[in-house]
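One example given next:
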Amino acid sequence: SDVRHAARRVRRYPGQAAVAALTLALGVGASTAIFSAVNPVLFQPLPYPDSGRLMLVWDANGGSRLDVTFGTYRELLARSRSFESMSVMRPVQPTLTRVEEPERLDGQYVSADFFHVLGVRPALGRDFEAADDQRFQPNGPFVAIISDTLWRRRFSADRELVGRQIFLNDIPVTVIGIMPAGFENVLSPTTEI
């Protein structure tokens, strides 16, 4: 009897029925769109092993967020007993030089244990070692790990690139590794080096 009553009301007031159906459709559509946008950010885990154990640390001053200084990182590293490992990074935009077409790249300076913290290893070559860390070894080597995308785009997926030098801002830098094709740098998605 409820269905018959509803059908009679729809026939008697088609405009109200159309407005009600349109309102429901817009509500469902908007809810779906918002969930689709929020789901990967808030509910999906990061694309790293044990991503639930990762933390991002920053300084705060009067309610505003400040990046951690390298001195703060060193103090946390020396004094903290709560973290299994820790890393620091800073954005940089070096220029790939001494090639036919120089190119500005998005990159990051990272401490040697950066990929260890994320639980990811290079697909080719090796990971950074403590001796590679310029922050702790003032005369240490200049080394880089590059993205699979950069490796394929600029170096034609040449497996012999590992161990060779490229020039960034006219400084020779040895490529020691190439990241896996599926690696996603969540904090800086455009980083290639």
User: Anything to note?
Assistant: The mean pLDDT is 85. The two ends are 69 Å apart (CA to CA). The helical segments are 2-12, 14-43, 70-79, 114-118, 148-155. Residues 14-43 form the longest helix (30 residues).
